[in-house]
């Protein structure tokens, strides 16, 4: 797809939203995965429904603010956001989480996960950046759908080792933002 080509050849991705997201990450040398339903070559598979393109950012390169205003994954499931959750990220590591009830749920999930983890610092690293592209999906509180809704972007906290990254941990928590403006190497991504 057009998005996959842009991500695969890009060096830097920037995501901004009206809610306050302003995030930058290096994607140099990283390969994206397009969940587009085209599995005819027999060499790859995917999940259904289709509708996202995602990749692991370069570990240590993710910086800025993410405002989660769509839905969020936590240890108890997926929650549709009522009060936005603000996540501050420095060198791919979450340094602060602010907001209301949903933010407390996320903080508690990460605290519990760190206690159970062999590598606690990996639990709070940003392991994925993704773009939702399916116009037939709305955010409903089921992450396998929410992360694919058109005009969304998402990050995931935690593991990315199974799709090209180097973060190993036992959790992967997607966090969805609405209405992103996405730029690759300073050029707005049109799709």
Summarize the entry for a quick read:
By secondary structure, the protein is of the alpha+beta class. It has helices at 2-9, 101-116, 120-123, 143-146; strands at 12-16, 22-26, 33-35, 52-55, 63-68, 71-74, 77-80, 85-90, 93-98, 126-132, 152-158, 172-178, 181-184, 187-188.
What does this entry look like structurally?
The protein is α+β, with helices and mostly antiparallel strands and 191 residues long. It is 17% helix and 37% strand. It contains 4 helices and 14 strands. The chain has helices at residues 2-9, 101-116, 120-123, 143-146; strands spanning 12-16, 22-26, 33-35, 52-55, 63-68, 71-74, 77-80, 85-90, 93-98, 126-132, 152-158, 172-178, 181-184, 187-188. It has a 7-stranded antiparallel beta sheet with strand order 9-8-5-2-1-13-14, covered by helices on one side. The radius of gyration is 15 Å and the shape is globular. It starts with a helix and ends with a strand. The model has no long low-confidence stretch (mean pLDDT 95).
